[in-house]
């Protein structure tokens, strides 16, 4: 008596990782279905060694589906997730579209699994850069409270999808093998697919992820601010972010500064992080041990190190937080939500549809 | 009636840039001499189209030298700079060795050229990551005062010298052309040549530059703290840094958060930066204009953008600061110090030697 699980956006950078996570998941799965846009429909993917053909996503795709994992862009979720709910499925949505919707729990299971029981058919998976910061900060918030967060990110290009990975590799090869000057490279994807101008990422650092909002912060930066407040249920927590893309393919790194409400000893902070599920303490500077992007790739954990007191602020702490953006930042967090829904008996149809059919 | 100028460490990543800066400098130069260690002595470099042989640095090398630019590592400066001063030269030292010495002005000409008149034969050029931050922050400090600085850096590998550039290119090629996994790459230089362990930089971000100090900050981070206080003559200014190496060859980027003493309007901050010598405002997010490492390469300016208010702290401001670490961060700032010494009539021998001969 297992579930029928659908993956929408199965051929993308996150979708393929979702499939890998489902293959090793504890979720009882009877049937798996892969859905995509017209461009990828008809492709054949593998699930536990069996070939599965990718189907075109339509309003009728979700009959008989118990759990639908969406990662095909905000407009696909906006259009099809309500039909999935109407058909009786529970949706775990990896896009930003529903994250601030009051009917939608925004969940990092280690942090706020208790909000899952309020779901109305859709649960949102937070932004990759937010999730790993939540795993690092929640153990601190629980013991000492949080007053403010200032974060500067070092984000991998895979957060912008497979086309950004391909663009980065192509650009790097053109510099290293063909001798092009990085500033003369042709760019078509980064920093934001939907924005007007595109800039090279090879040997560069781009202080723009997603498009700009009216307050001169980017959407990515505002996601970190607004999602942190919602997940932690701390509307007054001060959070400001600077989100930066760097020429790394996989794993986001973050330089995080926090001020706690109560004064915390660094050794106690380290112990709290080490004891928190999903967090791994990597912090022994005498042995040059600190988290590194290349070592986090393929792991579902969030690695935390360089934990040290601010040189001046009594309640200020700096740290370095690294995780695989496609796994804990997206695919694993989504599958983990599905597993938690199952464990809590929350995989069931909703009675009233709260989401508009487009 | 020009000067005899010596460049110590002439064959290094910074030394070669120093030579380029001297070629276009307004400094009246009669004779140029290139000095190095045994490894590079005998090589022939070009100066304004003329071949010049590199000489071995000895205690006797500085007879007749008016200005000596040092960039061959702290131990070379420690050993030979006092002999240069003893021989009547003025030393501009690009290493960290003399920076906190009370007899040594630590100078970013746009910020504190007034301290040059106190020199006793040696002037120190600050660390690359400090210099560009000083150019961005000094116009703000002068108008509104500074209470605190929190900076996270995105530093180019060229700050660790030519061998680090070579290592980065080799690693990237091994991944892109030969299919190696980044975590399996062999590293011999980064993160710090003198430290025990070495880690790959290709597709990575290393939260270690230079070795660690007793307070769990790295020396690079403590340079930013201590040098900022000395240059700005603000011993009580709160400065904490997280210094990170990323796979970029040239130009450092910095995510800088400050709190001012007096409240400042963002438009006024932008105007103050735009009016400050050496600073260039690149800030129009509606047009996706912000500083980028690849565009700063080869320029002596410091580019500042993404200037915006903190979302919560009334006097908090975030910005993104980018400059060519080998030029304003080292070679140009050193040559600019020499030019300023000349303009102020301060290229003259000192009477009493304040520095120990080793």
Describe this structure in words.
2 copies of one chain form a homodimer. The first copy, chain A, has 358 residues and is an alpha/beta fold. Chain A has 2 domains: 3-126 and 331-343, 3-Layer(aba) Sandwich (Rossmann fold); 130-325, Dihydrodipicolinate Reductase, domain 2 (2-Layer Sandwich). Chain A has helices spanning 13-23, 74-86, 109-112, 128-144, 162-176, 219-232, 266-275, 293-296, 327-343, and strands spanning 3-8, 29-36, 44-47, 50-56, 67-70, 90-93, 122-124, 146-154, 238-242, 252-260, 279-281, 302-309, 316-323. In chain A, strands 3-4-2-1-5-6-7 form a 7-stranded mixed beta sheet, sandwiched between helices. In chain A, helix 3 (109-112) links the parallel strand 6 and strand 7 (122-124). In chain A, helix 1 crosses helix 9, helix 4 (128-144) runs parallel beside helix 6 (219-232) and helix 4 packs across helix 9 (327-343). The longest helix of chain A has 17 residues, at 128-144. The mean pLDDT of chain A is 97. The interface between A and B is large, with 65 and 64 residues.
